[in-house]
Each structure stands twice: as structure tokens, then as C-alpha cells.
Amino acid sequence: MNTRKTLPHHANFCIPRCGKCRRYMKLVSAKPSRLHCSSCDETYSLPQNGSIKLYKEIKCPLDDFELVLWTTGAKGKVMNNKYGYLL
Predict the structure, then answer these.
(1) Does some domain include residue 11?
(2) How far out from the chain centre does Cα 64 lie?
(3) pLDDT by residue (tens digit) across 28-56?
(4) pLDDT at position 85
(5) Structural domains of the chain, count
(6) Is residue 81 one of the residues assigned to a domain?
(7) 57-66: per-residue pLDDT in tens?
(8) 35 lies in which domain range?
(9) Which of 30, 64, 67, 71 is spaced 20 to 30 A from 84 at the CA atom?
(10) Distance CA 26, CA 36 (A)
């Protein structure tokens, strides 16, 4: 049984946890889309004009944030954390 939170309008997007407080962040889908942690009152930018989903529930070893996967469609994929893009 999957215990991850999923947004109804983003069926493939599981909400990542904040690396600071470990609580679920909220996806702000209004442009520009971003992730917001209401506990820490921190907002993190996301790449625009693509699809975003949780990347295998892997955490960044530097900051403990969960990685998300961003793709523009048929071509390349980029993993993103708050420090930038990992190719």
C-alpha cells in the first residue's frame, strides 16, 4: 500500500518532503510553479513548462531533500533539487 500523498490533478506526482522539517511540501501550480513548505515558510522554484514527479524517493545527500524529476516530454530528463540541476 502506497502511503505517499498524491495530488488528484497530478496523478504521477507524489509530494516530496521538506529536507529541513521532513513534512510534506505543497505544490503551488500557479505560474511560476513551485514547492512550498508551510512549516519552514520556505519556497523552492521548479523548472517550468514540463512534467514533474518524485524521483524514486531518493534523497539528496547534501540537504536531505527528496529529488524530483522534470521532463519536457520525449527528450531528456533532468533531476532537480534546491541546489540546482543534476544531469
Answers:
(1) no
(2) 13
(3) 888 898 999 999 999 999 888 888 888 88
(4) 46
(5) 1
(6) yes
(7) 899 999 999 9
(8) 26-86
(9) 30
(10) 5
